[in-house]
């Protein structure tokens, strides 16, 4: 997954494209993606539920959705909710578009650049939940500034998540889990909800695993699942 952690939103890190796309993927990028892409050049609606062609009760965002496994599964499971998916990696976006088209989902909007752009564009308290699942850990110290979890981006999340909403984070990299806990502790508006070890060791109910998670488990890494409540 590609992400930007810079407060000035000045850069995206990582590859924008991998192996060549299949014909069906390229076709969806040309025809379906323009219909689903958020147009940030336009003023954001006062109510984010107005972003969708169908009536939805509330809106969630998934930042860096990879191949879209979790995003698509959640949108299918909760047709009464609207989902914003952000993924700059072209191959991941193309894969998700195929699934969205084949399932006929109409409660998803997409964006293919820095998630900070979307968070700054949305109106305050417009989301009930934000998911950051298996983000690139940027393990070297000189790369830490690239991590999405930063004081600036947490402030963005606090602004757009309504009180009582949630920020959810999952990772198999223990140093990034610690990093996230340290940064969220500095935010008076985000409270870690765990009361016992199983609250972060076990996946959330109805969890849809991703290919990143399956790879991590195959390689012997143990995921952690964190939920932070917006005060």
Short description:
By secondary structure, this protein is an alpha/beta fold.
Structure commentary:
It catalyses: guanosine(46) in tRNA + S-adenosyl-L-methionine = N(7)-methylguanosine(46) in tRNA + S-adenosyl-L-homocysteine. Pathway: tRNA modification; N(7)-methylguanine-tRNA biosynthesis. Belongs to the class I-like SAM-binding methyltransferase superfamily. TrmB family. Pfam families: Methyltransf_4. Substrate binds at residues 140, 172, 210-213. This protein has 231 residues and is an alpha/beta fold. The protein has one domain (23-230): Rossmann fold, CATH 3.40.50.150. Helices cover 33% and strands 19% of the residues. It has 9 helices and 7 strands; from the N terminus they run ααβαβαβαβαβαβααβ. The protein has helices spanning 23-31, 33-36, 69-77, 90-103, 115-121, 151-160, 174-185, 198-201, 211-218, and strands at residues 58-63, 81-86, 108-111, 127-133, 161-171, 190-192, 224-230. It has a 7-stranded mixed β-sheet with strand order 3-2-1-4-5-7-6, sandwiched between helices. β2 (81-86), α4 and β3 form a beta-alpha-beta unit. α1 (23-31) crosses α4 (90-103) and α3 (69-77) packs parallel to α4. The longest helix has 14 residues, at 90-103. The two termini are 29 Å apart. Mean pLDDT is 92; it is low at 1-15.
